[in-house]
Each structure stands twice: as C-alpha cells, then as structure tokens.
Design the sequence.
C-alpha cells in the first residue's frame, strides 16, 4: 500500500523556517554535527528521512546507504534540502510530503530517520504509525529528538509553554512530548536510548532534554 498519492496539505512556516536556518548554523558548529554523525552511523540500504529540514543530515550518511528519500513539507526548507542533496555523497531524493502520510510503499525501507521533527508533527502517533508502515519488519528507526524533562518542575514549565506561546513561535514545536514512550507504543522495541542535554547552557532551554537512539520495528 502506498499513501501520499494526493497532494498533501500545505505546511508553510516562512518566519520560523528562516529563523531556523539561522539558528541551525550556530547549532551545527556547537555540537549538532557530532550528534548527527552518531545518529546515522552504521546505516545501510534504503532510508527514509522524515522532516529533512535543510538537509543537514545528508552529509553524514555512510557510504553503505544506497538511497535516501527525504520528506520535507515546508517549501523554504525543502528548497535548501534540494541544494544539500546535490552535495551529498549518497543518492538523496527530496520530496514534498507529510509525516502522517508518507509517499512510500509498505515495508519499502530498511531504516527511517527522524531528527528534531517529532516535536512538531501535529499527530505524533500517526506519524510514527506511518514510519512503522514503510519500514520492513525488523527495520531500524534512528531518532534524535528533544523530549519532556525527567524532573517534574522542568516538565511543568514545558507543559505550560506548550499550552501558550511555544507552538506558535516554534513552527508547531512542543517541548513536553514523551517521544520514547510514543515510539514504543507505535510498535517498536527500543534498542538504545541516550539521554542528555543539548546545548549545555547555564540556564537550560525548554528543548535541552534530548534523546538519541535506535528502535527496531516489531514483526
């Protein structure tokens, strides 16, 4: 079964997209590139990347990757991803599409990649169900996401932000999602999960609690 045959609804966050490009350049220089390299290490075969953004991951895919289908719905970010794909060492095809309706056949990928995107999808469970659908049984999901803090006080602050200003200024971003639990609930077995704060600042950002790891699609 293939979904995404119909034109996806437009996702247009022009102000946030341009702000993110500026933020991302600084973040890459202060440790994000190393996280991306760890995220993608060991991948091979056919890969789908959901929410590719500017294509910052493309330079870090190992040579064993045969093909990357990179899905990005925001027009400004997608145009930058197309440029990044031309410079990538592995074949990358950038397409329009939504995480909740991926333009791909059932079981057609060996691995899926999500990085700093499951915070902003409108329906996280639906997006993860789509990832599960397009992965082959036993396929690997590689994730790097900011998540709900483990400390109760910090988590309360995140929930307050999510109910007020944060999604509006952050392109739909939510800070208090328990993404590791959502991945398990979607039919994956967590293989490895590393928890850390990034960036390490004296006053932590609401998005500082992060996870990086892998999960396997249950058969």
Sequence:
């Amino acid at each position: 079964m293939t979904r995404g045959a119909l034109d996806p609804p437009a996702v247009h966050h022009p102000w946030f997209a341009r702000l993110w490009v500026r933020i991302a350049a600084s973040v890459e220089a202060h440790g994000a590139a190393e996280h991306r390299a760890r995220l993608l290490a060991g991948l091979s075969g056919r890969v789908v990347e959901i929410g590719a953004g500017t294509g910052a991951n493309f330079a870090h895919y190992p040579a064993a990757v045969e093909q990357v289908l990179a899905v990005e719905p925001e027009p400004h970010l997608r145009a930058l991803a197309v440029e990044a794909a031309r410079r990538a060492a592995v074949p990358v095809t950038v397409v329009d599409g939504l995480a909740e309706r991926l333009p791909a056949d059932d079981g057609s990928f060996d691995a899926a990649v999500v990085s700093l995107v499951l915070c902003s999808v409108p329906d996280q469970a639906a997006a993860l169900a789509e990832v599960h659908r397009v992965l082959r049984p036993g396929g690997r999901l590689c994730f790097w996401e900011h998540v709900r803090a483990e400390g109760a006080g910090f988590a309360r602050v995140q929930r307050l932000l999510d109910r007020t200003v944060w999604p509006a200024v952050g392109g739909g971003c939510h800070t208090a999602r328990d993404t590791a639990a959502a991945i398990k609930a979607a039919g994956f077995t967590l293989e490895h999960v590393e928890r850390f704060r990034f960036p390490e600042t004296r006053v932590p950002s609401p998005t500082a609690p992060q996870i990086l790891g892998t999960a396997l699609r249950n058969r």
User: Anything to note?
Assistant: The mean pLDDT is 91.
